[in-house]
Write a structure and sequence with these properties.
This protein is mainly alpha-helical. It is built from 20 helices and 6 strands. The protein is 60% helix and 5% strand. Helix 11 runs antiparallel to helix 12. InterPro entries: Fumarase/histidase_N, Fumarate_lyase_CS, Fumarate_lyase_fam, Fumarate_lyase_N, L-Aspartase-like, Pur_lyase, PurB_bact, PurB_C.
């Protein structure tokens, strides 16, 4: 699709346009027009199969022509619809007129042309189109992008499962873990969040101006219009039928979906900030690329820009997604146009999320583990063994183990010699004492490696 670059108002269609190429045809105005044509065509064909007086089943040739309009829908077709809209000042009516114009020279279709958009309100076409847009975007673009991140993190979690690292709680040194276990924690969170996104049912309705099949029933009172509508939505369009609506489908499912994306993006903000910190500590190095500049003034710098970009874009995505989720289920009486206005920004909201996934994935590909820095940090933090020592003391009923270790270690620099000297003086069984004396901060990782290795299994 032709888009502006330098003059684009949104960076999604300017600076970052190439990164969103897969999403643009699905969630742009072109994408909405495409789905409107699809819905109008399937409704029209279904009506021909419904046994209605005055509308015989269409021939295979006519069905092929109609579905070919959907299959081969182009930017030129979208522009033609926009030209009609300049006269109608109504976007859905423009689609109807464009479709009827395609019937010229086709006697069978021409004779049945008034069954295009039959008994429909605009929202019957729009809500189904929006659901189809979200279905395609979720299945074809968003979930695959999420899956690539989860797969990368799973590989990292397993590869670094046994590499010890110092934990930090409240920013202070804490009981050690492993690099793989820290990443596995994120994988587990993402797996749950991804499942919620995938399982949100995409609802749709085709029940007329106020949700009661009024026009349908007055024209053909003996037709089971609810059954017919369900069949079109579920069997022909692959969505989930909502039997109770006002003029609009109430968008509760959209709120669920956008909330689910927000939760996943929030997990990735958390992770992006942690990785940024680990890079700052030297736990990770970043692969260099010839020609890249980290700072215009400081030649030595290699900034963690991918993780910063990811965090910023996830924040923008979440701001928009939260507004969509909070606003869309609210409608004045039967409907107002505020939902239509904000729904035009679905692509912007998900576009920023996709941009975040892309930035994060590129950042992860640049990371190199600095095991020397990890080992040095651990070797400088012998105080973290205080937990291990006082817990073994508890097991053997030594007096005030926590209090003893608190007095010995709190706020003081600890070395191997100091810790081992403390242990050597404890009245513990010899085997237990030997085990504690042999322990280093790098050894004190519990079952972290086992937990990390099994993630994704």
């Amino acid at each position: 699709m032709t888009i502006p670059t330098i003059t684009a108002l949104s960076p999604l269609d300017g600076r970052y346009a190439s990164k969103l190429a897969a999403l643009r045809p699905l969630l742009s105005e072109y994408g909405l027009m495409h789905r409107r044509v699809q819905v109008e065509v399937e409704w029209f064909i279904a009506l021909s199969d419904a046994g209605l007086d005055g509308f015989a089943p269409l021939s295979e040739a006519s069905r092929g022509l109609l579905r070919g309009l959907v299959l081969r829908f182009s930017e030129a077709d979208a522009r033609a619809i926009k030209d009609i809209e300049r006269t109608t000042n109504h976007d859905v009516k423009a689609v109807e007129y464009w479709l009827k114009a395609r019937f010229e020279g086709q006697p069978e279709l021409k004779a049945a042309s008034e069954f295009v958009h039959f008994a429909c309100t605009s929202e019957d076409i729009n809500n189904t189109s929006h659901a189809l847009m979200l279905k395609a975007a979720r299945e074809q673009v968003m979930l695959p992008a999420i899956d690539r991140i989860v797969a990368k993190l799973t590989t990292m979690a397993q590869a670094f499962a046994a590499v010890p690292m110092l934990s930090r709680t409240h920013g202070q040194t804490a009981s050690p873990t492993t690099v793989g276990k820290e990443i596995a924690n994120v994988v587990a969170r993402l797996q749950r969040a991804r499942q919620v996104i995938a399982e949100v049912k995409l609802l749709a309705k085709m029940n007329g101006a106020v949700g009661n099949y009024n026009a349908h029933s007055v024209a053909y009172p003996d037709t089971d219009w609810e059954r017919f509508s369900r069949e079109v939505i579920e069997q022909r369009l692959g969505l989930v039928f909502n039997p109770y609506t006002i003029q609009i489908e109430p968008h509760d499912y959209m709120a669920e979906l956008f909330d689910a994306f927000t939760r996943l993006d929030t997990i990735l903000i958390d992770f992006s900030r942690d990785v940024w910190g680990y890079i700052s500590l030297g736990y990770f190095k970043q692969k260099l690329k010839d020609g890249e500049v980290g700072s215009s003034a400081m030649p030595h710098k290699v900034n963690p820009i991918d993780f910063e970009n990811a965090e910023g874009n996830f924040g923008l995505a979440n701001a928009l997604l939260a507004h969509l989720a909070q606003k869309l289920p609210i409608s004045r009486w039967q409907r107002d146009l505020t939902d239509s206005t904000v729904l035009r920004n679905m692509g912007v909201a998900l576009g920023y999320a996709l941009l975040g996934y892309d930035s994060l994935a590129r950042g992860l590909d640049k990371l190199e583990l600095n095991e020397a820095a990890l080992a040095a940090d651990l070797d400088d933090s012998w105080e973290v063994l205080a937990e291990a020592i006082q817990t073994v003391m508890r097991r053997h009923a030594l007096p005030q183990p926590y209090e003893q270790l608190k007095a010995f270690t709190r706020g003081k620099p600890m070395t191997r010699e100091l810790i081992q000297g403390f242990v050597a003086d404890l009245p513990l069984p010899q085997a237990e004492k030997a085990r504690l004396l042999a322990m280093t901060p790098a050894d004190y990782t519990g079952r972290a490696a086992t937990l990390a290795k099994r993630i994704g299994g």
